[in-house]
Amino acid sequence: MKIALYELYKALKSKVLLILFVALFLLNLALSATYTPVLGVPDECIREINKVYLSTSEEEKLSVAESIANKYIKDNVLQNIFPDKKYEDKLNRVKNYNTTIRNIKSEAEQRSKPSVFSKENSFTQLSFKDIFTAYNNVIENKPSFYPDYGTERYINSADTDLMMLVFVLMLTVIVCCRDKMTGMAAVIRQTPKGRIHSAGAKLIACFLLTVTSAVLLYGMVLLTGTIRFGLGDLSRCIQSIPQFTLCNINMTVGEYLVIHFLFKTSAFFIVVVVMMIICTFLKNVAAAFAVISVCSGVSIWLYTSISDISAYNILKYINFCCFISPHQLFYRYYHLNIFGKPVSALTVCVITTVIILIMALLIYFAVYCSRRAISASGKISEIFSYITVKRKLSANFVVNEVYKTAIAGKALLVLVVVAVIGFCNYQNMSAGYDSEQKRYDSYVAQIGGEVTDETLLFLENEKLEFENIKLRYEELLTQTPAESDYESYNKELNDITKKLDYENAFNKICDRVSVIKSDKNSNLQLVFEEGFNRLLSVSGYKDDFLMCILATIALVLCISPMIAFDNQRGLTKLLRTTEKGRIKRFAIDGVITLVISAIVFVAVWLPEFVFVMNNYKLSFLDAPLQSITALYGMQTNETILQYIIRVYLIRFFSMLACGFFMLCVSKLSANLITAFSVNILLFVLPLGLCVVSESFVVIWICPYLSGTAERSASPANLIITVIIFIGLILVAGGEGVKKAVEKIGKRF
To answer: Which chain regions cross the lipid bilayer (predicted)?
Structure first.
């Protein structure tokens, strides 16, 4: 126990960990305090509605909410939308709960009966029998609707999940890797209690700090939700929350809130154990960060890309993303195909969690207590020695810095991995180019550009052709062809069906042409909007920010160790005594950073550019920017080509700025852990929060990296960002900058 307390003391003594947690706590508090469930509706309005909701009959709840809302909301449009649109659907779902459950059971019972289309005891038949019995315990529940904004915020707190993930990552690296950095790990392993007792002590320290941080972060979310909106009667059945009306478990709201927290805490403890295995197995801190990032990315990809009806859906429910999102398991009943038998996804997840935890603990103790230290980074170095040309001994400072970063620092390996991910991303984009979009683009290829009389004539003729085809189609359906004409009949019917597939795309083209003709700006043109939407990041925030996260993680792994590693080993003092050990060394590292940033930029965004070039051809680049529907409100006279160039220049220079910022952090950091922690906190975390909350799109470096600067960033954000960057570069430059200023002063 004393060893565990000592490990806990060492972790709490870490300034990096304490500063990180305080920053995450304050950020979590700010997000919870500013959370807006309905834009434009004040908290006072929601609180007053909540006060009277539990004491109001179901028939009067909507009218009471409307009368209260009218006192607080001045906007006539919002008055019509709220609370009708926000409350009415949820209220109806709760009111019709018993009818909905009975319909589900009735349909399941009907489909579970043997038929000519399903075999006896087939998986389909067993599935419907399972669904029929799943809702037996909750069919008589009497849910009571309450505007659960407080519980909704607590249940759907993806931003807090991301903060917890960052915290446990840093906690694990600090607890497991700090002794290796100081050389104490080898000494501790030789003591009587330096193996299994030391391993257990580190595990206990990580467990206690994980639980404490979860209590503080998630407790803050629940507390602010309670103060701002209230939680209602916690003894209500869980089906009272509209999101959980299809839940098949008989429990109260209060019980679920406790279960929700226990699930999340258990999930993060499993993540901690897995990370401890990686950090113990790997000798290099940078390698540990890289492997953890890859594992996290694979898990997130499996969870988001695999659908519930996929044959591989079990992979969706046995990874940490599902573990830390327990509401996905409770809000409805869902089962998996396990050896031909339907098994509840919740049951599978719980059993998998226990098995993974036990296996992870056994592997952790086995790795930690092994007779010799296992180093994967040594194996990677051996591989590099085979695939790289043997380097001649050289005193050239530039050659040594390049070798140290690219080979010893594994930056070359990181860049190769990023290039492979970029290629895979290109394959996914190609798969996502649907036939409907291709039909729309085929019309744009024929009549794109300025809307002229020829364009309108083409559309009129096309419309008449569709009408004639529909008449012919109806005529064919009423005919019974002779056997000799059957082949020609089918051919004509198939040709007509293929042509009718273009009708939706044709209607979209007609609507767009009508908008262009009715607009006062007669210069607008018909263009390939989908391709430009992809290039200009207006087709969806999440995909754009996932690419930004990939780019920043690559920069963190490549640039953070460049100077921090020398600081950690004490080599910086020696280098500073050499001829090029001060400002020139920093300048050389700056050039290397520029090259790495440029390579990452090309590897991440070139596949998207190539895809658009191949599929959309980027025609009509001289059209006004407002020709793109999503950018119609932009106040600029630029063409599409000019705007594309500007967006990508901003994105490119933002990448360079991020690289130089990380280099400055590396120079000011005493060790690798500090450099990685600061860079992840400042770059990866904000971009990750942009994925789960669009409110972060407008701050820090996020709008410039994502290409949304012109549409979301304020001038104040740009000024603050530039000041921070310049200030850090001046501080990192240190004496070199001071001497340069003095030389300039002497000349003038």
So the answer is: 162-178, 199-221, 258-278, 285-303, 343-367, 544-565, 586-606, 643-666, 678-706, 718-737
On whether the CB atoms of residues 600 and 549 are closer than 8 A, the answer is no
Cis status of the peptide bond prior to 42, with omega within 30 of 0: no
Average pLDDT over residues 145-164: 82
What is the token pair recorded at 198?
């030391």
Q: Residue 603 burial by CB count (10 A; 0-12/13-18/19+): exposed, middle or buried?
A: buried
Give the tokens for residue 556. Answer: 């963190």
State both tokens at 166.
Answer: 């960052």
The radius of gyration of the chain's CA atoms, rounded to the nearest angstrom, is 31
Q: Please report, for residues 369, 606, 609, 613, the alpha-carbon distance to residue 535 in angstroms, rounded to integers and kept in the order given.
A: 52, 10, 7, 10
The token pair that represents 514 in the structure block:
């009508």
Q: Which of 682, 681, 688 is nearest to 657 (CA)?
A: 682
Determine the 3-state secondary structure of 481 from DSSP.
coil
DSSP H stretches of helix in 479-540? 486-500, 503-518, 529-535
Burial of 88 (0-12, 13-18, 19+ CB in 10 A): middle
Q: Are 575 and 569 in contact (CB under 8 A)?
A: no
Q: How much is the pLDDT for 377?
A: 47
Name the nearest CA neighbour of 209 among 173, 255, 254, 162.
Answer: 173
Place of tokens 């001497």: 739
Question: What's the distance, CA 605 to chain centroid?
Answer: 17
Question: Residue 327 has which token pair?
Answer: 């509401």
Contact 596, 557 (CB under 8 A): no
For residue 158, give both structure tokens.
């993806």
Distance of CA 659 to the CA centre of its chain: 22
Query: Residue 387 — pLDDT band, cuts 50, 70, 90?
Result: very low
Helices (H), 96-140: 97-111, 123-134
Q: Which pLDDT belongs to residue 320?
A: 78
Tokens (6 digits) for 254: 């209060």
- Tell me the C-alpha distance between 502 and 509, whole Å: 11
| Selection from 156, 125, 302, 346 nearest residue 243 by Cα | 156
Q: Rounded CA gap, 356 and 350, in Å? A: 10
pLDDT reported for residue 375: 46
Q: What mean pLDDT comes out for the span 552-565?
A: 86
* Whole-number Å distance between alpha carbons of 235 and 270: 31
Q: What percent of the chain has pLDDT over 70?
A: 74
Indicate the length of the chain as a whole number: 748
Q: Phi/psi zone of residue 312: left (φ > 0), alpha (ψ -120 to 50 degrees), beta?
A: alpha
DSSP characters for 330-392?
HSB--EEEETTEEEEHHHHHHHHHHHHHHHHHHHHHHHHTSSS---HHHHHHHHHHHHSPPPP
Judge whether 721 and 568 are in contact, CB under 8 Å. Answer: no
Assigned token pair, 741: 């200023």
pLDDT at position 639 is 82
Decide: 164 and 216 in contact? Cβ < 8 Å.
no
Of 315-319, 338-342, 358-362, 511-515, which one has max mean pLDDT? 358-362
Paired tokens of 469: 């085809």
**What is the Cα–Cα distance from 226 to 46, expressed in whole angstroms?**
12
What confidence score (pLDDT) does residue 212 get? 92
Q: Which of 10-14, 477-481, 520-524 has the highest mean pLDDT?
A: 10-14
Share of the chain above pLDDT 90, in %: 3
Q: What is the pLDDT of residue 389?
A: 46
Q: DSSP character for 236?
A: S
* Residue 293, burial from CB neighbour count under 10 angstroms (0-12, 13-18, 19+): buried
Contact present, 21 and 213 (Cβ < 8 Å)? yes
Rounded Cα distance between 218 and 207, Å, is 16
Can you give 521-533 as a three-state secondary structure string? CCCCEECCHHHHH
Place of tokens 């992809």: 534
CB-CB neighbours of 452 under 10 Å: 10
The pLDDT-based confidence of 374 (bands split at 50, 70, 90) is very low
Q: Token pair of 742, please?
A: 């003095």
